[in-house]
Amino acid sequence: MQPHQLNPLIEPQFDAVTEYILNHLGSNVPLVESIGHYIVESGGKRLRPLLVLLAANACGYSGQQHIPLAAVIEFIHTATLLHDDVVDNSELRRGNATANAKWGNAPSVLVGDFLYSRSFQIMVEIGEMAIMQVISNATTVIAEGEVLQLLNQRNPDTTEESYMNVILGKTAMLFEAATECGAILANANPQQREALRLYGRHLGIAFQLVDDVMDYLSSSEEMGKNVGDDLAEGKATLPLIHAMREGSDSERALVREAIRKGGLDDLAPVLDIVHRTGAIEYTKAQAQAQIDHALAALTELPQNSFRDTLTSIARMAVERTS
C-alpha cells in the first residue's frame, strides 16, 4: 500500500497535488517540459508533499492552499534529485534511467534550476511570509548538506556526527519544512508547529538511515538503484562508519581503502564486514530511535485520523524495503 492510501480522506487531495504538479510544468522550452515530466512521472511515493497535506489537516486546515504548497515541496525535491544524480554520476533512479543519463548533465542541472524557480513563483502566489522563510532556509541548508557530503566523499575519517549533519541537511530538512509549513498554513499553535517540525526532522533522518541500510541489503529491483552505490561513490555512510569502528584492524583498513578509492572491487568483503560487525542492526536501531522521537512529538497534536496516518507513516519508514 502506498502511503497516501492509508487515509481515504487524503486521497482526493493527493490526486489534486499530482494534477497541480503536472499543470505547472509548462514552459516555452520543450526540453524543460520533457525532462520535468519525465522525472516527476518516474515513480516515487511523493511522501514529502503527502506530509504537507497530513500536517495541515491534522491541525484542522480547511482551505485549498495546501495543494500548491505540497507541489512546491515536490518541485524542490525533484530539483535536488536532478542535481544529485549529476553530482553522483548516477544512471539509475527508481528503476529508471536518470535524466542525466538520457539527456546529459547540463540539461538536468538547468531543469533542476527551473523547478527551484517555479517553486518560488508558487510560494509568492501563496503569499505566506512565514512559509517563505522556512522553505528558503531549508533550501539553503539542503545545499550546504550536499556540499558537506561532497567534501566527505572518499573520506574514511568521516565521523558519525559529521554524517548525521549531512543527512540532516540533505534529507531531513525538506521533511521538516514540509510538516512545519503545513502547520503554519493551518495557523497551528506554537506547540503544534514545533511538534510537526520535529516530527518531520526525525522522520527524515530515519528515512535516510534506512536508505543507508538498504544499500547493503536490497536488490536493484527493490531499491531502483544498484547495491553498493554508496560504496562505489566513496560515501562513508553509517553502516561503514560503524563497521570501521567495530571491526578488526585488518577489516578497518580494508573498508577505509574501499572508501578512499570508491568503486565496487571490494564490495563482497565490505558487505561481509558490514554484516559481521552488526552495522546493519546498529543503523536500524538509530533509525528506530529517530522514529521514537517523531512519534513522541505527535502527542502534541489533536487526536484525529490524520495524526494516525502520520503515526503509520513513521512506523512504515523503518519497515520499508524500497
TrEMBL record:
The keyword Metal-binding applies. Keywords: Magnesium, Metal-binding, Transferase. Gene3D superfamilies: Farnesyl Diphosphate Synthase (1.10.600.10). CDD domains: Trans_IPPS_HT. PROSITE patterns: POLYPRENYL_SYNTHASE_1 (PS00723), POLYPRENYL_SYNTHASE_2 (PS00444). Its cofactor is Mg(2+). Belongs to the FPP/GGPP synthase family. This is Octaprenyl diphosphate synthase.
